[in-house]
Amino acid sequence: MTLIRTENLTKKYQQHTALQDVSISVPTGSVFGLLGPNGAGKTSLIRIINQITAPDSGEVYFNEKKLHPDHTANIGYLPEERGLYRKMKVGEQALYLARLKGLSKTDAMKKLKFWFERFEIQTWWDKKVEELSKGMAQKVQFIITVLHEPELLILDEPFSGFDPINANLIKDELLRLNKAGTTIILSTHRMESVEELCSHIALINKSRKVLDGPISEVRNEFRNETYEVDYTGNGIGFANSLWTGFELISNVPHHGNHKAVVKLLNGNSTNNLLAALLPNCNINGFKEVIPSMNDVFIRAVNEGTPIENESVNE
Amino acid sequence: MSKTGLIISREYLSRVRKKSFLIMTILGPILMAAVFIVPVLIMNSRGDDTSYIQVVDETGLFQGKLTQSESIKFEFLDGKLDSLKDNYDEERTDGILYIPSVAINFPQGIFLYTAKQPSLTLISYIEKTLQKEMEAAKLEAAGVDEKLLVQIRTHVKIQAKVMTDKGEESASADLATAVGFISAMMIYVFIFLYGAQVMRGVIEEKTSRIVEVIISSVKPFQLMMGKIIGIALVGLTQFVLWIILTFALTTVAGSVLLKDKVVEKPQHIERGLGDIDVSAVPVTGDAKDVAIAKVFENLESINFPLVIGAFLFYFLGGYLLYSALFAAVGAAVDSETDTQQFMLPVTIPLILSIIVAQSIMTHPDGNLAFWFSVIPFTSPVVMMVRIPFGIPTSDLIISALSLIAGFIFTTWLASKIYRTGILMYGKKVSFREIGKWLFYKE
Q1: pTM more than 0.90
Q2: How far does B195 lie from chain A, in Å, by closest CA?
């Protein structure tokens, strides 16, 4: 099942194109990582899904229905540039924003009470937002985002501004909400949280979608015949045993053993590599290196921009 | 409650509950009451400070004839001028008036010696008094009976009557001018005051970054209109409170402070009424009543239901027209300090209208008056000047329709700038760029 599907979204501003033919589909119940360098067009895409702006062409479907203003009640949005009315009291403000999302006053009160107790921040109710620290205000903002129990949460850099303890608290809440059925679109630059949380990703670069799919498939796609070899023996001998068909990427001592990363070149197989190594060392472990999201990100982005590519510079 | 309703109530309540609103609500009427009361108090207290003038009269004509009042007393002395000047005592006297023997033929040769710069009022009082006495002396010398002269002296006063369907009605240009100008000024000030509040509200939402959260729930247009309407209600609330409080304060203060003096000195009332001239009426004890009756008659000549209705319409119309533009300015900038260049084109027509209003007071039916009361950017102020004089219904309808069309236009224009501007951070925008925003697809 697909909760959000965009079809050939294009959005142009006067001088530049923010989105060009972007089609993504966000499966229901997934944690969907929306990745891309700064200025790639993520925020434009998020704003279109939130109906803050409209695309020049293309369509967005929510549960296979064309996006409609009523759908805003089913979406919770935490923008990257966020804030609250500084002079307004926390409780009053949370109530106001919840009611703008379509909750009744009594409903909103009940839910706010639940969340304030859950985060143990009942005493903040009558404080003005300007009296809160940045982290505290972020917590309030998170509650406001999830309060109306939306089917879809769109979070732009949700962990920025939190200390590690609170970032964990938010992460646990997100996982709990996801388990309960909430679909989450997560836009972030922190690749470790992408690996930890996301089931699917899409990468946007220079206004186009570069790749998308389940995170494991994406990472597998980016395997490039690189293997990690855990061995005992002479490091120099190990290096010398590799002939031109292999590239030694790293070779370091590791807990009395050695750990090397080798890339296969010229159509050599793993068997060729093992055959070359076996006479020179004892192999304790051998496994394929699955690229981290960080590597995937950097490579996917750089491949799209050959001028900045390392190999060209060399 | 609808989403726009929620926004209106937040905008309204958050402002009405502020301390500054309370302070302004209380301070406003006090200031306004002060405007009415202080001049009366000053007029009444004028007698407290009496000037004592010593007179050296070489002609011998004025002894005992100069009219004295509470504010000025004359004391005739026989001594020589030089010795008096040498013995000048600031404690006892405020000046020495020297009337040389040739004064009656050479009236420019009269001197007033003082230690301090004398006031204009003092000099003109002495001049008038001497003039009157000299004229009387000359008339007597020429053989004219002064009583005859008093009989001949004629004071012409025109009573303006406007012929309307309801018959003849008294008209007062003075009163119409006053009513028109005060209401025009109030509209001008209110538009500035509350338009700026709309602008500040938009900037606040933009800089605090809450705007993106809100417009993921409501349309930018709803947010903008909610703010504009909410603040309009704040303005109306304050306005109504001011009228009630001003009325109460003026009444209470007036009856407490002025009660005794009013009874003692009816002539001050006459002066207080300003331009109502009662000198055509014999000055008797009834003068006060006659003058007041005249004021009431004049008040009736102004169509107050029309003036009040028009005031509310033009206040709201003008406010809606300008506040939409103020909202657009707020959306286009990042902070209040950047508003200058965009404020100018918005405020120029408003300032122009108050300047034009002053010349329109003298020609309320001229071409200038007509066109400026049709153009929606100037009509709220200019029309309020014209209405108390009475205007053709057709003018009123044209002006009202054009104002409605005007604010629909500016609201449409502003909403286009607004919805793009509120999402632009950290970028200095130019007029060119704002022009482009108008053509972005929603």
Answers
A1: no
A2: 20
